[in-house]
Amino acid sequence: MGSMLPIGMSVAKPATPHPTKPNILCILVDDLGYGDLSCQGFAKDIHTPNIDRLLNQGVRFTNFYANSNVSSPSRAALLTGRYPDLAGVPGVIRTRNKPVEPSPDMSIADFIRNHADESWGNLSSEAILLPQVLKNAGYHTAIVGKWHLGLQSPDTPTERGFDYFHGFLGDMMDDYYTHLRHNRNYMRENTTVVHPQGHASEVFSDWAIDYLNTRRKENVPFFLYLAYNAPHAPLQPPAEWLEKAKKREPNSTGKRAALVALIEHLDEQVGRVIHALETNRQLENTLIIFVSDNGGDRGSNANNGPLNGWKGQMLEGGIRVAAGIYWKGKIKPATAENFAMLMDIFPTVCQLTGTEITHKIDGISILPALLGEKQTTDDRTVFWVRREGGDFGGRAAYAARYKDCKVLQNRPYEPLQYFDLKNDPNEQTPLSIETSERYRKLFYELMDHVREAGQVPWQ
């Protein structure tokens, strides 16, 4: 287990807080299971002291949701405040977007697997991203790490509102040390190809710390979006971290031990970034958001706690995520049961910073809940959409929810199922739809959403 870096222990005289515009650090991790932080209380084989401190000393959400069960759409929702299909990203934007032509000796299974590499999203040219509005409000904006919303102009980070980009344009990495995807290098500093050395989680932390150091003497607030690839497969922690995890949990399976080591190594990197904020006297005036882009991956032996389902599914385990927001001395430690989503981060940050929103968004500000005020956040119907190739065949799967009533469809060829999450939180017993007025209402609201999203090109 790595060292626990302190939060809240001043190392120097604090910088004078900006009166209305705090710095914002948004940390997004990839495929983290709902139970795969020790502060969540479900995984007894994992130790994440640095992330735990953020969530325990800030507001830890128990009812926070990604806007999708896969990566690109969730990122689109976070950065636009919109449902991802209304931002042009109903599915995954992939680094290989040309399907393989079938050959006479290719099996149907191989043909489907090859087609799964197709790209099913294109960030709308009409979409307005959070760094754009924050930049107009006087912020310096940067992204370090995984972008996953476009590989080329005009959909690169510095063309979509960020002042600075140091990271990875693509989706997953095939290797955490070579940083390649399909044998191509997608690492960039702004538009320049770079060839960093070392584990990707350490590289991104180094780059984030470098950025924080450059902002140390600037009298301009910053927005840093730090998006790690970890703990997404491949399960490739540094060897010494894997050895520690296996030594501590000798009965852990190979995949589980590797995932635990990868997450604990990630936790150490998050701790390094927080420590840099503190050393730079930036911590007292920096709001820190921590969240995952979707639920844990079954193939990686993730722990989704009590939730049914996995990444890629509309069940709770695919879309409900660990999340917390920390601001030293400004936000009191609390556990919030408020329903919230990734798309709510956009308006929350804007309200906190006094930044005006002059265009349509779908998220709501949860700032009152952060400040300890009573706020109703679940009195709204919300939607999830995922369009894919492969066995989806280019079709979409859906979910919709109002309060505790939820309809879902994990695959486009399955019927919709209807659940009462209050009485059946593990989604074990679908309810009859024949006489349910709430089901019919959700069904038609979902249909209206599909109609609206059909006006937004995604190719």
Provide key terms for this protein.
eleven-stranded mixed sheet; 459 residues; globular; four-stranded antiparallel sheet; Alkaline Phosphatase, subunit A; 11 helices
Describe the structure.
The structure is a single chain. This protein is of the alpha/beta class and 459 residues long. The protein has eleven helices and 17 strands. Strands 1, 2, 3, 4, 7, 8, 9, 10, 11, 12 and 13 form an eleven-stranded mixed sheet that branches. A four-stranded antiparallel sheet has the order 14-15-16-17, with helices on one face. Helix 5 packs parallel to helix 7 (254-279) and helix 6 (239-248) crosses helix 7 (254-279). The chain starts with 22 loop residues before the first strand and ends in a 6-residue tail after the last helix. The relative contact order is 0.19.
Distance between the termini: 45 Å
- Counting structural domains, the number is 1
Number of helices: 11
Q: CATH superfamily name?
A: Alkaline Phosphatase, subunit A
Oligomeric composition of the shown chains: single chain
Which runs of at least 5 residues are low in confidence (pLDDT < 50)?
1-18
Assign the CATH architecture. Answer: 3-Layer(aba) Sandwich
Percentage of residues in helical conformation = 25-40%
| Backbone shape | globular
Task: Describe this structure in a few short sentences.
The chain is an alpha/beta fold.
How do the helices and strands line up, and which of them pair or pack?
Layout: E1 23-29, H1 49-57, E2 59-65, H2 71-80, H3 108-115, H4 130-136, E3 140-146, E4 164-168, E5 180-181, E6 184-185, E7 187-189, E8 192-193, H5 200-214, E9 222-227, H6 239-248, H7 254-279, E10 286-292, H8 316-319, E11 320-326, E12 334-336, E13 340-341, H9 345-353, H10 367-370, E14 381-387, E15 396-402, E16 405-408, E17 417-420, H11 437-453
Parallel strand pairs: 1-9, 1-10, 2-12, 2-13, 3-4, 3-9
Antiparallel strand pairs: 2-11, 4-7, 5-6, 7-8, 10-11, 14-15, 15-16, 16-17
Helix pairs in contact: 5-7, 6-7
